[in-house]
Amino acid sequence: MTQPTIDFGVGGRAPKREVNWEQLLHTAIESSSHGLCVFDWRSRLVIANEQHRSLYSLRSSEVSPGRPAEDVFISRHARVVGAKANDQLAGYLAAIGRREAFGTTYELQDGSFVELDMHPMSDGGFVERHRDVTELRLAMVRAEEARQELIERQYAIDQAVIVAITDVRGNITYANDRFCEISGYNREELVGSNHRLLKSGVHSSQVFRQMYRCLALGGVWRGELCNRAKSGELYWVDTVITPQLGPDGKPVAYMAIRVDITARKKAEAQLSHAARHDALTGLLNRAALLDDLSERLSRAQARRQQLIIYLLDLDGFKHVNDTLGHAAGDALLKQLSGRLVSVVPETALIARLGGDEFAIVQTSSTDERKQTEALAIDLLQAIAIPFSIESQEASVGVSIGISIAPLHGVTVPELLYKADLALYRVKSDGRSGFHVFEDEMRSRAQDRNRLVNELRASVARGEFELHYQPICEAESLRPRSAEALLRWRHPTRGLLYPDEFIGVAEDSGLMEALGRWTLERACADAASWPAELRVAVNLSPAQFRGGLLFDSIIGVLMKTGLPPHRLELEVTESMLLQDREENLLLFRRLKDLGITFALDDFGVGYASLGSVVSFPFDKLKIDRSFTSELPGKPASRAVVASIMTLARGLDVEVTAEGVETMEQLAYLRGQGIDSVQGYLLGRPAPFGPLERASAAVGCKPGL
């Protein structure tokens, strides 16, 4: 074959040279930006350029001329990853054998991608082109991900978003499936209808005027709208309306994109209701009452009206909780709230302040005193009717304190304070009634507050002392024990008795500290008495709260050295009604140590006989109110006889308090009383006189 020549001269005068085609092909292959490999008719490598070696990170020995195509592919294949690698090798070898074109894309270990194209030549050999398609592949992946994301977003939008298009007159020209679903109308009913079809009546015309004004100027309007579905049910949508502008810049249509926020609106309404209403009764709560009360007070002042505030506190509600359980107490409060709603005018506010406390706010433009008393009486009568709870009847009373604006004040705190003072007056007078605030109530409250402060300071200064009254055997009048009685040595008022300060101490939280001091002082005094004498110490219900009483008593006995069997603890029936199981366990633990228990003032409290029987008392003490009427009053004789019968059945002792005459002593002896206590046998006295009296043979009547 004659080699072609190339003319390097000008005008044909230069000499002609032969072209080295092999060298030219080699140069072209090496300078290619792709990886190239040439194989001869025996499938042996003729040449592989540097780009090919670089793509696969091959050594020169792995692509040396003369190597079989299979070996070269296996060298490349070692750099390939992916599930299709073996299939690609098999396909390649099969294509070589048949001298067919072959193409595939490899994923290499370094994360790159290489595209292979193999083409056969006419002389039996074949050529491979290897191209780095990593960027292209990644671009395709990103494009596919973007396409898939767009599809998913479009689907999500169509599922979640309500889309409508209207003309400038508000006639619907397009509605998507979600629009049809939430409105309840099919597409044929919506398209062609005016959007007023969905008007709910919730919004004022001003809202829509502002919307149309914004859209007419080419602006985008956003807001929350309430629409009415075909069924009549209301639903809320967060709406964005965008005008579609014509060539002249004026709107030719409107596109509305809406998101259903009905669930959120309902949740907000529920949260708002919960924030302002009591969860148990559904009445307003304290915070809502204060907000609304301020608003009503301002309105009443502007209209020159009176505002009446009633504070209600249930009487005997704790007894219901203690005897029937808290579930029964909750049921009673629910029924009571219904009665309040039925009695109180619709325009009044009713709130539960917490626990068993309620408030009512009423506006009046007539004779407020007459109207106030009429409603208070209605409330007393409505609440006095027994409540039916789980086939049982429960009764409570109510104490009502009342203040009137502007007569008693013009601010919310002032009016509530004075209504509370009136309420406290009702409770002081015996409960279950009502009082309108009077100026003297303020001075009484100030006196009480002063007493609280003095009492607190006196506790810190130790201005208290104990007097002891002997308790004697009924027949021999020999002293068996002495009751410790607390006295307050007031710096200006002299010696004060418990009925002048115990109630204040209990209300102000000082009773626990006083009780601890009394117990320790009494045990310390009794430790020096004759061994046969016990000391009786009264426990306040406040000392049973907190779970520290057992440890406190043990600590006092260890500190003073008084043997446990010489300590007698007196409790009242009210203690039996609170935390019954916990207190019963406490009784048993203390009795195991040898401490005895007496039920004081028996017969005047609320405790049932079942409670008395279940607690391990050693002694019942007949209240002085029954003893003082002996032997003349038949009712008192019957009470004493009943107590004696009960005591014999329970195998417990009986002490009669308040014995002041020989006739009373003789009658009680005849009833088989175990011990007596009263002025006839000895008045309360400080520790010194008691110590001397206890050394005597016995108590002497009249001393």
What does this entry look like structurally?
By secondary structure, the protein is α+β, with helices and mostly antiparallel strands. The protein has 24 helices and 29 strands. The protein is 42% helix and 25% strand. α3 (69-77) runs antiparallel to α4 (85-98), α11 (317-324) runs antiparallel to α12 and α12 runs antiparallel to α13. A hairpin with a 2-residue loop joins β17 and β18. The strands form 6 sheets. The chain has an 8-stranded mixed β-barrel with strand order 21-22-24-25-26-27-28-29, surrounded by 4 helices. The protein has a 6-stranded antiparallel sheet with strand order 4-3-8-7-6-5. It has a 5-stranded antiparallel sheet with strand order 10-9-13-12-11. Mean pLDDT is 84; it is low at 1-11 and 692-698.
Assign an overall shape.
Answer: elongated
Number of helices: 24
Low-confidence stretches: 1-11, 692-698
Query: Using only CA atoms, what is the Rg?
Result: 50 Å
Topology:
Layout (H helix, E strand, L loop, with lengths): L4 E3 L8 E3 L2 H10 L4 E5 L5 E4 L1 H7 L12 H9 L2 E2 L3 H14 L3 E7 L4 E8 L5 E7 L1 H27 E7 L4 E4 L1 H7 L3 H4 L14 H12 L4 E8 L5 E12 L5 E10 L1 H15 L9 H17 L3 E10 L1 H8 L1 H18 L5 E6 L2 E8 L3 H17 L2 E3 L2 E3 L2 E9 L6 H17 L4 E4 L2 H23 L2 E10 L5 E12 L3 E3 L5 H6 L3 H16 L7 E5 L10 H12 L6 E5 L8 H13 L3 E7 L6 H6 L4 E4 L1 H4 L6 H17 L2 E4 L5 H9 L4 E2 L10 H8 L9
Parallel strand pairs: 19-20, 22-24, 24-25, 25-26, 26-27, 27-28, 28-29
Antiparallel strand pairs: 1-2, 3-4, 3-8, 5-6, 6-7, 7-8, 9-10, 9-13, 11-12, 12-13, 14-16, 14-19, 15-16, 17-18, 21-22, 21-29, 22-23
Helix pairs in contact: 3-4, 11-12, 12-13, 17-18
